[in-house]
Design a protein that fits this description.
This protein is of the alpha/beta class and 412 residues long. The protein folds into 2 domains: 136 residues, 3-Layer(aba) Sandwich (Rossmann fold), CATH 3.40.50.720; 218 residues, Dihydrodipicolinate Reductase, domain 2, CATH 3.30.360. It is built from 15 helices and 20 strands. Helix 14 packs across helix 15. The longest helix is centred in the N-terminal third of the chain and has 20 residues. The radius of gyration is 21 Å and the shape is globular.
């Protein structure tokens, strides 16, 4: 008997997962649920196995009602609803997947409790899902998600790991003013907060836009700058360093590109501050004022097509894992490069942006493991904690979507 899957939230990630699930022979029914009936009906109208539902994600009972009988709940809702959906999955005896819900456990915002939120999920929800014989997988987009699995590939070639860099550079630039290809509010929040890194074995806060690194890869146009960026990966991997990352003591997430180039001067000028201030007799919050003037990320085919018709100034980027350590008594650097369709190619294939492609497809591949019974474990894990067999299956299927890896080892 085929699987029944509930997809909560039909934005870019949720809709991509639903579309891919519609092609899966092991899936009989897809429930697409959101608080926006127009968005749900628009998606369901393009699918053959799906039905629409309305949900109030602030109410666990509302989630439970649409989740009845589901084998898996895919949570593509905002972070603040993470705990409600986890609780509903347990109550309905379903497996669970999300794209990044950890910090919503306590406050729904990025602060010092983020690390505690992840630890809480491991210690409190892990045993509950394990006792039920179910699995919850957290952080399953492109970053975190795909890049976490790629990091596991990189450290396979080491006997011992010292330092890991997760590097993401988004260099897509259009003639139209479009600084962000994903949620501007999330991007600016992540950029303006202190980031996380694991340094000398301890998870610490690092300065926004701080600790820059410069990289030059063959397929990029010259040297690029990447900076600290508040992301899950150093926290996940820092907590799991000994078991999954060959004892790495230093783990960083570095981000660069058009969005960083746009946001950093705003931050330096104080325009990403969330402290209310007086301006000519009016009270304003600089962050909110700036956000009001930034266009949302395009998500509909017509919008994306219009931007492409106007022309791109650049269509480049990279996702790279650098792992430094020892192999056979020698100091080495392992580079694992992730390659995926660019903006023009993603649009030609699926009518979506390259950001939507790698994040949505990267997330769907974790779902594919669920619906094809390829997970070997129960409990609650983050996306860096897959087994080797699960990782191999993930990247075998990723290659079918033209998401591929290239790993090289350099002696130091």
């Amino acid at each position: 008997m085929g699987k029944k899957v509930l997809v909560l939230g039909v934005g870019a990630q949720g809709s991509t997962v639903a579309q891919r699930l519609d092609e899966e022979p092991n899936v009989d029914e897809i429930i697409c649920a959101d608080c926006d009936p127009k968005a749900v009906e628009g998606l369901v109208g393009t699918l053959t196995k799906a039905r629409a539902a309305s949900v109030d994600a602030s109410d666990t009972d509302s989630i439970r009602e649409v989740a009845r009988g589901a084998d898996l709940i895919v949570n593509a809702l905002p972070l603040i609803f993470g705990r409600n959906v986890l609780d509903a999955a347990l109550a309905e005896n379903a497996c669970y997947q999300d794209f990044a819900a950890a910090e919503g456990m306590f406050t729904g915002s990025l602060d010092d409790d983020w690390v505690k939120g992840i630890q809480y999920m491991y210690s409190e929800y892990g045993p509950k899902f394990r006792s039920a014989g179910k699995l919850a997988v957290v952080g399953t987009g492109s970053a975190p998600g795909l890049i976490c699995a790629a990091t596991r590939i990189a450290v396979r070639d080491l006997d011992r790991c010292d330092t890991i860099f997760n590097i993401v550079y988004e260099g897509v630039e259009s003639k139209r003013f479009q600084p962000f290809w994903w949620s501007p509010v999330t991007a600016l929040n992540d950029m303006s907060e202190d980031a996380f890194a694991c340094i000398d074995g301890k998870i610490v806060r690092t300065p926004a836009f701080g600790l820059p690194v410069y990289r030059k890869y063959d397929y990029l146009d010259g040297e690029v700058k990447c900076v600290e960026h508040a992301h899950d990966e150093p926290v996940y991997m820092g907590l799991n360093a000994e078991k999954f990352f060959k004892g790495a003591r230093n783990i960083y997430f570095k981000y660069g590109g058009v969005g960083v180039g746009f946001a950093e001067p705003l931050y330096r000028a104080g325009l990403l501050s969330k402290t209310e201030e007086d301006f000519n007799g009016s009270k304003i919050i600089p962050f909110d004022f700036v956000l009001k003037h930034i266009p949302p990320a395009p998500k509909f085919k017509e919008e994306i097509g219009a931007i492409l018709d106007e022309g791109l100034l650049a269509d480049t980027g990279c996702m790279v894992v650098e792992a430094y350590g020892q192999k056979a008594g020698k100091d080495v650097r392992v580079e694992t490069h992730v390659f995926a369709p660019g903006m023009a190619d993603s649009f030609a294939r699926a009518g979506i942006t390259s950001e939507m492609y790698i994040t949505g497809q990267g997330g769907f591949l974790f779902t594919k493991l669920f619906v094809n019974d390829r997970y070997e474990q129960t409990g609650l894990i983050t996306s860096d904690m897959l087994t080797d067999a699960e990782i191999d299956y993930y990247f075998a299927k990723a290659a079918e979507l033209d998401i591929t890896l290239d790993t090289k080892i350099f002696e130091l």
